[in-house]
Amino acid sequence: MRAFAQVVVKLSHVPGVVAAMIVGATDGLIVETSPVASSTASATDPRKHTAALAAYLYSKVIRASDAARLGTPAFMRLEAESGHIFVVGAGDVVLVTIVTTDANLGRVRLEMMTAARDKS
Amino acid sequence: MTDPTVAEPWVAGPLTRLKEDARLLSGVLLYPSGRAVGQFGFANAADVMSICALTSAINASARELGRQLDGKPFYEMHHAGAERQVFMARATAGAQEFLFVGVFDRESSFGVVEIYFAEFQKALERLHPEKQTPGVGPSGDFEGELNRSLDALFGPIGKH
User: Fold this and answer.
1) Which helix (H) or strand (E) holds A77?
2) What is the largest CA-CA distance in chain B?
3) Closest CA to B34 of B9, B51, B22
């Protein structure tokens, strides 16, 4: 569990990361999460919903990738109006980050890929 | 998948939404007494009858177990089988209490079901009619109540 906590802390310190989470790949439940960055925090906490739906979406991406004979997806980025959701698979869990539009996306991606590789 | 069949029309919308959003294979909404309010995914009354009786009993057992172990009742249960999973939880609308039991497979997940069940609960709270349905509480005639609710869902047995 300490290793999970360290991954989440490290990812949440990357500039532009609003929240970092480790989520069960099959059940979509949060295993470890960072707090939501205070500047963007609102009345509703987005983490539980984002975690469950991102894990669900990633499971569909795996199937789509498999159907297209592309193998296992390495990285998923969902671009929205006000930010991004990044998802990386790491065995039984997926790493999920909620990221602002002005973040250094390359750095977030690199940190997530490294964390996923170390976890696997 | 079939649309929900309901004994009380106001639950049809929330049940349909829950079924579609959470990608449930089947589900039953019932009163804690075991009386069915609505269902989807089942073709015959006998299955729903068994599920209502079992859910009612499991709910009573889980509440008592929670009280003894944790000082407060357990209201939610999840069982992950090899292929299919069962989710069981309490929902309230005003002073009225309901139980819901749903079945899902790998097309959904526990996290997703939990999220949409929370929305379902809010919809019940919002749509619940002010006037209470008569005879909702336990009357002591468990079998009679169960049969009447199943008649409302599937039609009277032997009169098809």
Assistant:
1) strand A76-80
2) 48
3) B51
Average pLDDT over residues B90-109: 94
Banded model confidence at residue A36, pLDDT cuts 50, 70, 90: confident
What domains are defined for chain B? 5-101+113-130+141-154 (3.30.450.30)
The answer to whether the CB atoms of B115 and A53 lie below 8 A apart is yes
Specify the residue for token string 């930010």: A83
Domain with A52, as residue range(s), is 2-35+45-119
**CATH number of domain containing A18:** 3.30.450.30
Q: A40 pLDDT exceeds 80? A: no
- Residue B41 corresponds to which tokens in the numbers above? 């995914």
Other beta carbons within 10 Å of A28: 28
Query: Which of these, B22, B53, B62, lies nearest to B146 by C-alpha position?
Result: B53
Binary contact (A52, B80; C-beta < 8 A): no
pTM: 0.81
The interface predicted TM-score (ipTM) is: 0.79
What are the tens digits of pLDDT across the range B35-85? 999 999 998 889 999 999 999 999 999 999 999 998 999 989 999 998 999
- The β-bridge relationship of strands B96-104 and B85-93 is antiparallel
A112 inside domain: yes
A57–chain B Cβ distance below 8 A for any pair: no
Cβ of A27 within 8 Å of Cβ of B115? The answer is no
Domains: count for chain A? 1
Q: Give the model's pLDDT for residue B147.
A: 74
